[in-house]
Input
Amino acid sequence: MGRDVAEAPRVLALRQLGILRWLERFHVRAFPDGVLVRLLQVRAGMLQEAISRGSAFMTRLNAATAALHDDREVFGGRVSWLDYRLYLMRLYGFHAVVEAALSGFRPLATVIADASLRNHKTALLAADLVALGLDRRDLPQLPRMAFRVPLALPEALGWTYVVESGTLRSKLLARRLARQLPEEIQRASAYLGCYGEEAATRWRELGDALDAFAQGQRAADELACARVIDAARDAAIQLRCWVGPVLQPRTSQRRA
Output
């Protein structure tokens, strides 16, 4: 009985990572902590590989912004549901203004055909915040990040890249947080689960679109590609500055 209770969190973590089905297939019933840690590291490595591989232009974008996406900084310490809700509030303040700008920029669809379908994350964040107890009438009062970027097509593509790059990382974050906040993640993770099992496919499609744009520009003006990269770096910096303060590890072990 005691052993079953002790192993429950590990079983939950493996199930959420899609590893438990693999273990059961090969009749693996017991696994030491070291093995579990290694499995988690492998899964994280698979995620980073998915982000890094793909088109040549996406590789350049990833290299330009990689230092600004340190996943180890995301809730490195103990997390309460209030920490998680504050994190979603900050993301809401980021996506609300960026999505409004991107949605109103029609030329974006000439490169990313489904751009309008991708700009829906503010609604997902709103649903999560309401599920965590925030009154829907208070959503308009949440702080918004200042967004004064004059959009042209290269800048819109750079910002889209940063917005979409969070969809793969969010899946990993959801699995991590589920070990500390299982109930909250179960009912309030629409944003973290954006695109569901199609996340990798949507990421690859974005890469194809950006690569086609870059190939078309090489024959005319490499400067446009440089502008996309500069915009992506600027977007990543602004996102980190906006969200970063709520992700600092907590010394307190409180549980709200």
User: Anything to note?
Assistant: The chain has one domain: 54-247. The CA atoms of residues 74 and 247 lie 5 Å apart. The chain has eleven helices and no strands. Residues 1-54, 251-256 have pLDDT under 50 and may be disordered.
